[in-house]
Amino acid sequence: MVGAGVGGLAAAARLAAAGHVVTVCEQAPQLGGKLGWYSRDGFSFDTGPSLLTMPEVFEELFTATGGALADSVELRRLDPIATYRFADGSGFAARAGDDDLRAELDDTLYAGAGAEWARFDAHAAKVWEVTRDSFLSGPMSAGRLLRLAAAHPGGIGAVTAGRTLRGVAARYLGDDRLRMFVERYATYTGSDPRRAPAALAVIAHIERRYGGWYVPGGLYRLGEAIAQRARERKAEIRLDTPVMTISRGPGGRVDGVILADGGRLPADVVVANADAATVYGGLLAGSAGGRPGRWPGGRATPSLSGFALLLALGPPTDGPGAAGTSGPAGTGHHTVLFPADYDAEFDAVFRGRLPTDPTVYVSAPADPTLAPAGCEAWFVLVNAPPHDPGPGRAGIDWDRPGLVATYAARVLELMAARGLDVRDRLRWYEPISPADLERRTGTPGGSIYGSSSNGARAAFLRPANRTAVPGLFLVGGSSHPGGGLPLVALSARIVADLVGPA
């Protein structure tokens, strides 16, 4: 196993439970991959996902590998799931209950907004029913897409209605604010809502249907629990163990991995929980046994990356500008601050420029275990172009002197302008740039989801879990079925099924 992200750990647990001898090699000093963790001076932060959906996926994972999820991790349902604020000062809380959300939209946006949302969600529910089993239960291919269309000749129209996520949002929603709310779900796959397929409307429905959840103590605990389950099933996890090459023997079949220290681990099967571009362009490139195979990503657009700030905040101050989870800004567990010009943000990110007025996402968990008494640990994220310092680049050079500090100040200014001024409470901050993401996770450019879902079929035809190289499998967010904690865990189930029992 190459990589100890959530996908790799879940696959390790499943394969070890199926009787395989499993060794996981992780290049970083900690497990979790993009489900990262940072602690300093009594403050602790999730540095990757901060919201869990489809908890049933993880309940099934733990049950299948020998014990209940509840015995290892506590899940806490969030209500509201998030609070959304717009440039005109309006906003709403995404209440967990459907009736509560419709009433909230009518009360805070305009009369009839709740009914419009209900019609959109009914459409998204139909998309979910069409795609759920066929898309998530097994490996995807062009042939499987055609069979999906044949099996659901009426429902397939729902999948493609509006062609793009923006198109389907405009079809059902009559207000720019509700459309921005829906279009944000494109960023869950690192994509542009103007180019992402209409089928991504299903993400909004999934979040509503299965709820938004938090793990007390941080979502990183979920990764730790999966790792512990893998170890209980006798999988070995080696940290600080970079893999340089996936080696192949006669006929081109994988026969092991070569480590950075020159050592070699033989293997009948290799599961790579690394970015697919890294696997094809790097780990296979130096192996014997023939050509490494064609990179299946083709000309897919890299997904957007992110620029994050970890904010260590002291107790709220009195008077104007005070903010906090109970302050006048009404900060909840998750808060999204939209810009005035959403298109300008996507134009910048996907053209390799810094957005000057990006959407700001704030995760401010009311969790006393994450900060000293009276203090808070906030995770702030904005969409950003990937790290790409070369000529003709698709991103920018995030290592350019002064850029990170300047942009951090800009993000704090934007938060203040939008009602969340925490600068007088700021004890220190830790930035995480796309270049940092690339170094920490090995993802090219720090692109969070590998390739984007920009294009009519891109969401359905990510790199396959079973590669053209015999014995090599891909797991994780850059492969089918995509990024995000539940989909990554589902990719592990698909791979374990493909490999089969020992």
Would you summarize the structure shown here?
The chain is α+β, with helices and mostly antiparallel strands.
Our count of domains comes out at 3
Which structural class do you get from the secondary structure elements? alpha+beta
Residue fraction in strands: 15-25%
* First-to-last CA distance: 15 Å
Strand order of the largest sheet: 6-5-14-15-16-13-17
Shape: globular
CATH superfamily of the largest domain: FAD/NAD(P)-binding domain
CATH architecture of the largest domain: 3-Layer(bba) Sandwich
What's the quaternary structure here? single chain
Query: Total number of helical segments?
Result: 15
Mean pLDDT: 89
CATH class of the largest domain: Alpha Beta
Q: Which key phrases capture this entry?
A:
single chain, 502 residues, alpha+beta, FAD/NAD(P)-binding domain, seven-stranded mixed sheet, three-stranded antiparallel sheet, 15 helices, 18 strands
How do the helices and strands line up, and which of them pair or pack?
Layout: H1 6-17, E1 23-25, E2 37-40, E3 43-46, H2 55-64, E4 76-77, E5 83-85, E6 91-93, H3 98-108, H4 113-136, H5 142-151, H6 156-160, H7 165-172, H8 176-183, H9 201-210, E7 213-214, H10 220-232, E8 236-238, E9 243-248, E10 254-259, E11 264-266, E12 270-272, H11 276-283, E13 305-313, E14 334-337, H12 342-349, E15 360-363, E16 376-384, H13 403-417, E17 426-432, H14 434-441, E18 472-474, H15 485-499
Parallel strand pairs: 1-8, 5-14, 12-18
Antiparallel strand pairs: 2-3, 4-7, 5-6, 9-10, 10-11, 13-16, 13-17, 14-15, 15-16
GO molecular function: oxidoreductase activity
Pathway: Carotenoid biosynthesis
Family: Belongs to the carotenoid/retinoid oxidoreductase family.
